[in-house]
């Protein structure tokens, strides 16, 4: 069976690749092609890849060492770099590749990464009669996952589905029962992404992980209905290769507009885009109506990448999506062309399913409502930001809030400029916080408990596990330091709002 190699790639007619390091190219098989602009793509590499990059990750010379070390450590066979972003291949990248023994190829500006991917695919499948070759050839020819899935379903003589980690059906050969994809994904994640057989809606399904490169934060899966006793490990592995080819093609397609989308959303967030300029960028991205906004935050390693994956998997396959880099208060922002109410429902389901695959991590998200979308992208993004902060005020591991659902005083706090919030907080409870900091007197905690229990001394004392006289003493100090009378309802409201501002600021 033919084997695509770096040597063969360089010698291929019409590609014009130039060898910058590793003149004696190793005769190693290029297992697959992975396109990335992440500063550290190592978690998505399994070894044997030709890594292609447009160098968007490079901000300073030291970035080259970090990127190349990560790629070499994971066993990539070579690095292909395009100079369009920087105008040249930087010398620090060449030096880093020489240090790590990683062959570096310069990709001409008129040769797309998709062309290199197609060459590797063609060499892998030429004259190949095996299943993997047939599946790869079918996805390369059709550009859709339905083709390789149909081939596999015909071989197994069983209906099959490919489902993403958020419960989205990427390809199917039959209809699933109501809520089938959601139920299948939930059961799969609860099993840790391991192979298993489940019964859903009166049918049995064999679930097998699909681990393409690049891998998402949690696994794609193959579902086969009414499975027999045959081993699905090898068929799932072959289908994963076809899925990887499809994802690589989709990633390259998204990269063509991602920079434009980032510029749009960042500009609106930073308030340095006029309404006219924003409208022109929206039109360039294919938007035909006013967008809604989404803000997502995920805790833990690569949280920004996981948040971006959630948004792109849910909305990216639809028309017109712009996703900003996750560099605004720890959240990833997006403008999407979608129905506000339907998007909230789907995001809530997707976040819950992805959260089930990421135990110990927290997913919070916010969406703009119908009214904000009518106003424009700036108002929509602000409302999505505030809605996400409201979601973060709770303790649930996965929380999604829509601007249409906000009907509490928190929306007023969210609309206040930060400086106004700070002055309001400091004017009312600043002395309490300062006193607590010096004496550990727990005055703020006691005030919060007192107000939470509607002014009941006994319940407040029981909640804090102290004597009621201790509560009385502390609250007298609260009145002395704030100049407020806790027996007056207006003063209680003011202090309650100041405490809500504290909660709001802590949730940012």
From TrEMBL:
Gene3D superfamilies: PucR C-terminal helix-turn-helix domain
InterPro entries per record: CdaR-like_regulators, PucR_C-HTH_dom, PucR_C-HTH_sf, PucR_dom
Domain Purine catabolism PurC-like: 15-121
Domain PucR C-terminal helix-turn-helix: from-to ranges: 443-501
Coiled-coil region(s): none
Name listed for the protein in its UniProt record: PucR family transcriptional regulator ligand-binding domain-containing protein
Native species: Actinomadura fulvescens
Organism classification: Bacteria, Bacillati, Actinomycetota, Actinomycetes, Streptosporangiales
